Amino acid sequence: MHILLVNDDGIDCSGFWLLCEALGKQHRVTVCAPDGNRSAVGHGITLHSPLTVHRAELPGAAAAYGISGTPGDCVRLGLGALIDEPVDLVISGPNVGLNVGMDLHYSGTVSAALEAAMQGVKAIAVSAPPQAEEQAVVEIFLRLLEQIDLETDVFHALNINLPALPIEEVKGVKWVPQGLFFPWLDRYEQIEPPAGEVPEEGAYRYQVKGTIRPDRDDNDSDVTAVLHGYAALTPITFSFTDDRGFSKKEFKL
Questions:
Q1: Opening angle at CA 205, ends 202 and 207, nearest 5
Q2: Which residues in the chain show pLDDT less than 70?
Q3: 219/60 Cα distance (integer angstroms)
Q4: Of 98, 102, 71, nearest in space to 8 by CA
């Protein structure tokens, strides 16, 4: 299988290298990843400036490219220009941090997978908490990948979130919907400028701070599944249409 491997944490992320090397033992892997961290950039793409591409060497990769743009750019450029042969699957991750609940709207990792689906290639996004051991994340994901049937299990894209546990302690695997709430309590704190820097008059600095919600959703969702020790699998797509919102109301102009 030919796999396009992308992420949003950057091409130099150590967990990304581990997954690339492991995938390369059984598959042909092409890497197109940001040349630096692009976390939480969502589904942005670069329109008004050129993208810079440099070749890289990653263990297990047949070819690898570091790209100056977003994760979405990496998928588009990879599928549209850098790769001249069919790609069977796009894998995005492993992300350092969960992508669950309403966080999916901000995630560069998930957006890369959805961009692949928009381009007609099935995709899988994989994420785990920052404290997860990287080798365990890779091993758990590879076990799941071996069992995934792309014909029946993935329609557009599949979002996978893994708990920060060794394989033997993972309670199981659950198909669950996206949690429809924010799993974090975010707040903005005013901070001082770096030492030696004189702030512009009238300008202030704020930094977002977040902690996990103590009142997290009790429903069976991606949030609760992974926080209770399960690997959470959520089918996702790029359609924004809310079918429940269609009304029989008639309008006159």
A1: 160
A2: 182-186, 210-219
A3: 40
A4: 71
pTM for the model: 0.92
The tokens for 144 are 């799941």
Convert the pLDDT of each residue in 147-188 to its tens digit: 999 999 999 999 999 999 999 999 999 999 998 876 666 677
Q: 123 with 110: CB under 8 angstroms?
A: no
Task: Look at the block and give the residue holding tokens 């692949």.
Answer: 116
